[in-house]
Amino acid sequence: MLEELAYRFLEQGYTVRYLTGSGAVVLGGTVAALVWTEVGRLQRAPYFALSALLLLASAVVESVQLAQPQMAAAGLLWAILLIDMLRLLVFGFLYGVVAMARSQDAYGTRGYAVLAFAPVANLILLFRPSKDDAAAGGAWAVALRGRRGVVCGLLATMAAFLAIEVQRRAGTKCGHTCRR
């Protein structure tokens, strides 16, 4: 039954799969907003770096998709899709926590974290200066402050896009067409 459901989902067009994945990310962020009460503050550079590191981690976990042909042959295609959906939910949750911390630093409230989930609006959250000059606390915030955070963010973003491209090419070579 689960296998049949997995095949039916994959038969849907790219748009349906994309919207389902986007919905999972937003759902994860919504859950974070509802259950995560300990919101710190993140300045711009640590926010950029942590966002990029989350993207990289998500791209690496997504590589499990390359096993779709083997998993389908074993009758476990549903497991791959479950892992992928969990990846998107966890990404959304963690990204929501990071966005709430940035919103707290930039606006004094975590309510503007929703901007992080809209690509262009995220730039507003990213470039908004801190509300006050006091440095945000926490080990990540300190370690990724200033140039280190920017460099880390740029490197993580490049690595994430490289991982995605490697997966795309590997998927094309093996005839894997379920995802893209």
Structural summary, described in words:
This protein has one domain. The model is unreliable at 174-180 (pLDDT under 50). The chain is elongated, with a radius of gyration of 18 Å. The chain has eight helices and no strands. It starts with a helix and ends in a 7-residue tail after the last helix. It has 180 residues and is an all-alpha fold.
Distance between the termini: 24 Å
Order of helices and strands: HHHHHHHH
Supply the number of structural domains.
Answer: 1
The rough form would be described as elongated
Largest sheet properties: none
Compute the gyration radius: what is it? 18 Å
Mean pLDDT: 85
Q: Number of helix segments? A: 8
**Contiguous uncertain segments of 5+ residues:** 174-180
Write the topology of this structure.
Layout: H1 2-11, H2 14-35, H3 44-62, H4 68-73, H5 77-107, H6 119-127, H7 139-143, H8 147-173
Helix pairs in contact: 2-5, 3-5, 3-8
Summarize the structure.
The chain is mainly alpha-helical and 180 residues long. It is elongated and about 55 Å long. Keywords: Membrane, Transmembrane, Transmembrane helix.
List keywords for this structure.
180 residues, mainly alpha, 8 helices, elongated, disordered C terminus
